[in-house]
């Protein structure tokens, strides 16, 4: 690691109030694929992107939210808990938590992404937050994740449960489709563009086989979300 | 609990090699909603369906599969792990595990579901398996889940990773269609039969407007899955 990278890690660990036994885990959690790609092109071999950690962290976050809901909302049936979980684990919510804990200032980004406003992008922020959850879990078990990240999740869970925030356009579209059209929206990846490290995805959302909208995004998830948001707008227009 | 219910629990705990500190957790994990519904109509208040446990267990299973993949497939990028996880956590795979551990013989089902062949239904089997994972977790932490259920999951993960089993027929068909025919399969609901509580759905899958197969199922999802499976078989026959 370079000196300024190490400095960044030390700053962030202070802010978190947690010292990693294996700081390399934290380093990897903070490395966006655009940074890993650039650094590897420069010949460095010690830089891995946070994508594999994000994969594990996604499951860690889901599990902790599910456990919190199961234990603290004993009167809520499965359907209600599922909805709250979908919103609390959404990119939007996780991106907010990333900002709450100052993670956005510590992510390592490639130059292109930095110029492209990547530090504000929800997919990048939420991905890094999931990667951080995995890094904490691998470093110290569930305990540090519960102490450091879960309190933030709980704050959003409570607001979502109280109906004070709506995060999830996909869920909103699904509910509308079921209620009004007795069917479920279908998301189909229709196109991919660009080189591997700057891919764009285009997802079409359909209702009963009919295309409603196409969303684009830097991940399939993002593209789906955008498609759902556009579809909701379109359905509203059709109603009016 | 009734005597025959307790007997059933004892039998199953012997089979699992695990004694629950709180057998009520196991009882709830085994209670399908159809059974809980019938028993509550008879005035019993101690019977809860396994749906809330299924919600938590879904996240427990996902997390354990993700952790296994992260630790044991260090060379696999996120996309590959995601595909394997989707297949390993699919209803099909979890229903097979439910049969492997004999869970199918111990589920409490309502009379209607029993007559309707519910004991063979994948959604019921996989739901009960997830509920069992949650019950084990709540009773003894991750340890019993890892000892009792994870080895079964690993067996399927290995077969999926080696390409020996395909669980997610819809994804497999989509990939094949994109690769070979530069198009996406289209699913069309062509018919519904039967009364509301015992509906059958028929979904046709088409490639470039041409019908490939029709699948039936007790839900649209099931019917689509069956259609995809049949379509894959048909495409293979056409190749041979």
UniProtKB/TrEMBL annotation, chains A, B:
Highest taxon of source: Bacteria
Catalytic activity annotation: Endonucleolytic cleavage to 5'-phosphomonoester
Location relative to the cell: Cytoplasm
Residues the record lists as binding Mg(2+): 54, 130
Span of domain DRBM: 168-237
Single GO molecular function: identical protein binding
Example of a GO biological process term: regulation of gene expression
EC number(s) reported in the record: 3.1.26.3
Any one GO CC term of the record: cytoplasm
Cofactor names: Mg(2+)
Sequence ranges assigned to domain RNase III in this UniProt record: 9-141
Keywords: Cytoplasm, Endonuclease, Hydrolase, Magnesium, Metal-binding, mRNA processing, Nuclease, RNA-binding, rRNA processing, rRNA-binding, tRNA processing
Record-annotated active site: 58, 130
Similarity comment: Belongs to the ribonuclease III family.
Function: Digests double-stranded RNA. Involved in the processing of primary rRNA transcript to yield the immediate precursors to the large and small rRNAs (23S and 16S). Processes some mRNAs, and tRNAs when they are encoded in the rRNA operon. Processes pre-crRNA and tracrRNA of type II CRISPR loci if present in the organism.
NCBIfam families xrefs: RNaseIII
Subunit structure and binding partners: Homodimer.
Name this polypeptide is given: Ribonuclease 3
Species in which this protein is naturally found: Pseudothermotoga hypogea DSM 11164 = NBRC 106472
Taxonomic classification: Bacteria, Thermotogati, Thermotogota, Thermotogae, Thermotogales
Gene, per the UniProt record: rnc
């Amino acid at each position: 690691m370079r000196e300024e990278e190490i400095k960044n890690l030390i700053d962030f660990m202070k802010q978190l109030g947690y010292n990693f036994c294996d700081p390399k885990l934290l380093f990897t959690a903070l490395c966006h694929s655009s940074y890993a790609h650039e650094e590897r092109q420069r010949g460095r071999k010690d830089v891995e992107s946070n994508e594999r950690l994000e994969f594990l962290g996604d499951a860690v976050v889901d599990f902790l939210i599910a456990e919190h809901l199961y234990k603290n909302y004993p009167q809520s049936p499965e359907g209600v808990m599922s909805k709250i979980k979908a919103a609390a684990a959404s990119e939007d919510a996780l991106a907010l938590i990333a900002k709450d804990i100052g993670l956005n200032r510590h992510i390592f980004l490639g130059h292109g992404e930095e110029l492209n406003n990547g530090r504000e992008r929800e997919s990048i922020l939420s991905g890094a937050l999931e990667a951080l959850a995995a890094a904490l879990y691998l470093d110290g078990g569930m305990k540090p994740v519960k102490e450091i990240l879960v309190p933030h999740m709980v704050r959003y869970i409570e607001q979502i449960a109280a109906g004070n925030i709506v995060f999830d356009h996909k869920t909103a579209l699904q509910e509308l489709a079921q209620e009004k059209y007795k069917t479920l929206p279908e998301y189909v990846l229709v196109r991919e563009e660009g080189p591997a490290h700057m891919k764009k995805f285009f997802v079409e959302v359909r209702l009963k086989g009919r295309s409603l909208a196409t969303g684009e995004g830097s991940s399939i998830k993002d593209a789906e979300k955008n498609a759902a948001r556009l579809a909701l707008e379109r359905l509203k227009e059709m109603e009016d």
